[in-house]
Write a structure and sequence with these properties.
It holds the Pfam family Lactamase_B. This protein has 283 residues and is of the alpha/beta class. It has 7 helices and 19 strands.
């Protein structure tokens, strides 16, 4: 089945869209290429990437969640922040991945998938360490990694320096999940957002995400800092939200596709018992 389709961003960046809404990025320089994220390990991603580039390939993972990292076993050189290694292992089983896909596609589309469409689980996959500040020179195009913990402890964002494009992955988007056990509190996330924004100030003009809609406003980090403050002050809308059995709330009222009704980009989905550092309680 056609699990992916591609979109040309410019003469050296290709966006790869999955059936379940993830967006991966293939970046090519004169000497090498980099693939940012690998989706769920389904749909023969490596064959697609091989058809798009013949250059030596490096894979960079934004974080360890199954919808971004489970395609990693198809590739040789894969970088992951070691803080997300256990998360990757935990989400490797068939059942985790199939359950996620089933919740995101129609029954007819899901029925088309067979075991042959999946990369076999490889929880002991060996990764190269992805550390804050690392730069990958592809030849005329370079990608720098920045740590931005919150959505997961090992979340990373990538700056395409020459293009002045910031790829945020799930670290900060229009429906940032901040309710799992691997997430930090809203208070700490705000601190991390402020720190990241300061480090990246003046270095980018465009912001790309990793789900559904590719591009968002460059003001998203500032909006997220403001939103965290509103949550801490009890000034948010807090719409009920449930994802795969977990209940949380959406901070700002939004329409379909998590488009905020006030027109701003950036939103948080969080649990009210996880706002303050060191004060998480059971609900």
């Amino acid at each position: 089945m056609n699990y992916y389709h591609t979109e040309t961003v410019n003469d050296h960046i290709t966006a790869i869209h999955s059936l379940t809404g993830e967006i991966l990025y293939l970046v090519e320089g004169s000497r090498g290429a980099a693939l940012i994220d690998t989706c769920l390990g389904v749909g023969h991603l490596k064959a697609l990437v091989d058809s798009l580039t013949e250059k030596p390939l490096t894979v960079l993972l934004t974080h360890g969640h199954l919808d971004h990292a489970q395609g990693a076993p198809e590739f040789d050189t894969v970088y992951l922040n070691k803080k997300d290694l256990e998360l990757y292992k935990k989400q490797s089983p068939w059942e985790e991945r199939k359950g996620y896909i089933k919740s995101g596609v129609s029954p007819e589309e899901f029925a088309k998938l067979t075991d042959a469409d999946f990369v076999p689980p490889m929880p002991e996959k060996e990764f190269s360490e992805l550390a804050d500040g690392m730069t990958f020179d592809l030849g005329g195009i370079s990608i720098q990694a920045f740590s931005y913990p919150g959505h997961t402890q090992g979340s990373m964002v990538f700056l395409l320096k020459e293009d002045r494009i910031l790829i945020l992955g799930d670290a900060c988007n229009n429906s940032t999940f901040l309710f799992g056990k691997e997430t930090c509190s809203v208070e700490e996330y705000r601190e991390n957002t402020v720190k990241t924004a300061r480090r990246l100030e003046g270095l980018y003009d465009r912001v790309f995400l990793s789900h559904k809609v590719m591009e968002t406003g460059k003001e998203i980090l500032a909006n997220m800092e403001e939103l965290c403050g509103e949550i801490m002050e009890g000034k948010t809308d807090d719409l009920p939200f449930e994802f795969m059995g977990t209940k949380a709330c959406i901070a700002k009222r939004c329409k379909e596709g998590f488009v905020r009704e006030d027109g701003k980009c950036g939103n948080l989905i969080y649990r009210k018992n996880h706002i303050w550092k060191d004060r998480r309680t059971e609900e």
